[in-house]
Amino acid sequence: MISNPGYVKRRKIRGFIALFLSTLAAGLGLFWLGFILFDVLRHGLTAINLELFLEDPAPPGIPGGGLRNAFVGQILITFYATIIGVPLGLLAGTFIAEYARGTKFARVVSILSDIMVSVPSIVVGTFIYAIMVQPQGKINLGGIFGVLFLSIILAIIFGSILNLIVKKVIRISESKAGKVVNLFVTLSTILFGLVTFLILMPKLVDRIHGFNGWAGASALAFIMIPVVLRTTEDMLTLVPWTLREAAFALGASYYNVIKDIVYRSAITGILTGIILSISRVAGETAPLLFTSFNNSYFTLNMNEPMASLTVTIFNYAMGPYEDWHEKAWAAAFVITFFILIVTILSRSIIHLKYKNKS
Q: Which of 167, 187, 209 is the last residue of a domain?
């Protein structure tokens, strides 16, 4: 069979053009990424000093001081957002990929998650403001949702510990007995969450109102959940079903299959999604403007307005003082460096883990 030389030549030309345009687009994106990183490094590195981390802001117009309140506030808000958002997104993604696989409910949740990933963060900020910051008559919705979030997290932690203890201490081989034990753990977890909510409600509900750190953490967690959910769902779906069938054939329960087989196979992708979600919220400003607001003083109390690096960068960058501009560059450099370090460490841990296994 003799091929057409002209046709082959045209295919090579089209392939070369497509490769050239793709390379040009990638190079253009990398150029601007490098330009931004270089600019942040050039301006931010020169403004780094110990005062920036150890001192609180100086009065406006007076050089000196630091951003200790903003650093601590950013760490606390991001930490609690991760505590709230990552477990909920991970559990929701696991349910959609494993227990609701192929159902209409799973498809609807996946579509809604894709929509939520694209929702502007300022919309999330106004939503959390409406339900957790703005008073709704005589009902303190902010306090109720804050206590509810805390109760859910404590219940999840309690359920995980209880399930681990039951699995380690009581080894049950019969399927019926195993179902009874799992039902007991589930009901105990729900009961613990309800009791915790009823105990904490009168003690904390009136302390959480107006602008506060919990509202900021909830807004960031709301942004993190769909990212973690979609990543978890995609990574678990990529794990071949034959691995699950092999574990089922050995008598493993579905819980153990997910925990010991599926999660370990998809840990790299799941961790990448978690890092992406943390990176996404680490640079968000708009949600915190409507929720945690800002605070010029150092505080560890999440029930009151709290400073954050992103809002401080916004305020200082818009300010008229050169000293503020330098501190804004330094704060931007710290956020960028933090995300880089977290990414490198997580990748290194995964690499060492699989290297030791091999």
A: 209
Of residues 320, 300, 324, the one with CA closest to residue 312 = 324
Q: Is 155 strand, coil or helix?
A: helix
Q: How many CB atoms lie within 10 A of CB 198?
A: 11
Count of Cβ atoms closer than 10 Å to residue 30 Cβ: 10
Q: What contacts 24+ positions apart, CB below 8 Å, involve 158-164? A: 158/188, 158/189, 158/192, 158/193, 159/185, 159/186, 159/188, 159/189, 159/192, 162/188, 162/189
The tens digit of pLDDT for each residue in 210-232 reads 788 888 998 999 999 999 999 99
pLDDT tens figures, 99-157: 888 888 888 888 888 888 888 899 999 888 888 887 655 666 667 777 887 788 788 88
pTM: 0.80
Say whether both 297 and 158 belong to one domain.
no
Give CA–CA dist 219/289, Å, rounded: 11
Kindly state whether residues 179 and 242 are assigned to the same domain: no
Secondary structure, 3-state, 158-195: HHHHHHHHHHHHCCCCCHHHHHHHHHHHHHHHHHHHHH
pLDDT digits (tens, 9 = 90+) for 260-277: 889 988 888 888 888 888
pLDDT tens, 4-15? 777 788 888 999
Residue 41 CB neighbours (<10 A): 15
Task: Identify residue 194 by its one-letter amino acid code.
Answer: L
Do residue 200 and residue 94 come from a single domain? no
Q: Alpha-carbon distance 321 to 325, whole Å?
A: 7
> Of 135, 248, 154, which Cα lies nearest the Cα of 200?
154
Q: What is the CATH number of the domain that holds 65?
A: 1.10.3720.10
Please check whether residues 164 and 114 belong to one and the same domain. Answer: no
Q: What percent of the chain has pLDDT over 70?
A: 89
Main-chain phi, psi angles of 76, to 5 degrees: -65, -45
- Tokens in use for 223? 């942004």
Residue 25, pLDDT score: 95
Asked whether residue 72 is assigned to any structural domain, the reply reads yes
